[in-house]
Amino acid sequence: MLGSTDAPTPCNRTLAMKHIRNFCIIAHIDHGKSTLADRLIQACGGVTQREFHDQMLDSMDIERERGITIKSNTITLSFTAPDGQLYQLNLIDTPGHVDFSHEVRRSLMACEGALIVIDASQGVEAQTVANLYLALEYDLELLPIINKIDLPAANIDRAREEIDADLGLDPFAAIPISAKTGVGIDLVLAGIVAHLPPPKGDPDAPLKALVFDAHFDKFRGVILQVRVMEGTLKPRDVIHFMHAGRDYKVDELGYNQFKLVPKEKLSAGEVGYIVAGVKSVQDIEIGDTITLLDRQAAEPVPGYQPARQVVFSSVYPMSTDEYPDLTKALEKLAINDAALTFEKDSSAALGFGFRCGFLGLLHLDVIQERLQREFDIGLVISAPSVKYILTLNDGSTVEVDNPSYWPDPSTIDSAAEPYIKASILIPEEYVGPVMELCREHRSESQTMNYLSAGRVEVSSEMPLGEVLFDFYGKLKMITRGYGSFDYEATEYRSTDIVKVDILVNKEPIDALAYLVHRDKARTRALHYCEQLAEAIPRHQFKIPIQGAIGGSIIARSTIQPYRKDVTAKLYGGDVTRKKKLLEKQKKGKAKMKQFGSVNIPQEAFISVLRAEKD
């Protein structure tokens, strides 16, 4: 195998820029990015055999258990080519799920080239195509890799055809490998050196460095991951963040090699870390440009986009005593995750909680699991929602993502909701069911593109809110796991959104209110009512559970009361005695229904908000 296999060897001497390669690995989720990164690290001697474990660049337990990359990571490797020339390889691992495309975008901005990985058994999928377009947007050189050739279902020739037809890349330049067994890894390293371009930049120009990632260290504060585009940075330099407008003094800088290796400087073309006394990730903006305070660059690195939260949900502790613990837990997660936003919220039924913003449903799921696992907090999560833009009768506009803040319907002139352009890659035989699924989720336009033999891309424009609940699960079920899905946000379009209240014993439960298109309101309300009727225990009186839009009831379920046989003690006598007792019981039940309170267990909220809709 090529390269050194000794213990880690830091790049202790500064290399010429032509001997540096900055590259990332992009692919659809579960196509083997992290495994390929592991093999490259081993081949370059980036870690000893004793210290090695699978998914070296995945730092969270949840990443290793699910086999996904959630947070991008970076490492500097030393590679000795067959001709004896030493190269510095800066590898940036990226997430594969659509929710974290913002992280992929930042990583691509820091690179000149990318390895685009295709699964030999599954071929090109939706997120592969989406990442290709992102890479081309930043003018990256792409080296296709066909992975998992050791699988029985692997079809290298078909993968080459799809690389040509779907990606427009040279199919014969693709390198077939098995990242699991290590076959072909030497060819990948040789391809990186031969085909990916070296960085460009002037070490003597004013400093311009891109912050493409950051993480929090409890002893040293925020550690910034940067790519130096122009200029040179040294310890004790005072830096200026061009978007955030903050100034800090550099305490230390160097390379990432599983541990931080301090250096005397970082020059144009290099990737490394900076420690500058930043207290929280939220004090800065990931994607920002760093320059020197006393010699500032004329303009920041182009392509900066702030993270956009598209899914909103309220988070409540299962027990009200755990509210302070939930507050501390969210603050700790936000220190490392700048994309997570939260503000205080409250519910009459569930007490105090937080309204949180997420990049997508997977981001929500990851945060929920981390809160429960790392901080041992039981949670109740409200139904996810998107942000709607309302135009009121007085001409003003408001943004609403929480049903609690929905204004009086009589004051609303019009409403708009976010739309997405969905790209669905499927085998040809599933076209009919998938297009029907899109129509069920209010798709406004559908186009088909035959990519290769037996493979179709369905493009569809639909509301983002329709994708939040069960779309992806149904797609996987319909296509037997062969369908892949990617989307990009497009614009806001006019819609007919209503607020549906759920009433238990004629009292509205604020935590169960939701915003939905009018056509879907009754179906969802009926689901809520049926689930609550099963989850709430029976009382001594009849409990109506209703879904309502304003004063109009659109769905109802009833929990029947316990019935006590008050006539059991009677024997013989006139029938009027029995009627008298039954009438007395009837009046008592009516009074109890009027003044009695319904006990709604926490499990009822969970069953409603997390259950699948029919």
Question: Please, could you describe this protein's structure?
Answer:
The two termini are 54 Å apart. Strand 12 and strand 13 form a beta hairpin. The longest helix has 21 residues, at 575-595. By secondary structure, this protein is an alpha+beta fold. It folds into five domains: 17-195, Rossmann fold (3-Layer(aba) Sandwich); 208-292, Elongation Factor Tu (Ef-tu), domain 3 (Beta Barrel); 314-338 and 345-384, Elongation Factor G (Translational Gtpase), domain 3 (Alpha-Beta Plaits), CATH 3.30.70; 389-495, Alpha-Beta Plaits; 499-610, Alpha-Beta Plaits. Residues 1-13 have low confidence and may be disordered. It contains 13 helices and 31 strands. The strands form six sheets. It has an eight-stranded antiparallel sheet with strand order 11-10-16-7-8-15-12-13. A six-stranded mixed sheet has the order 2-3-1-4-5-6, sandwiched between helices. Strands 21, 22, 23, 24, 25 and 26 form a six-stranded antiparallel sheet that branches. It is elongated, with a radius of gyration of 29 Å.
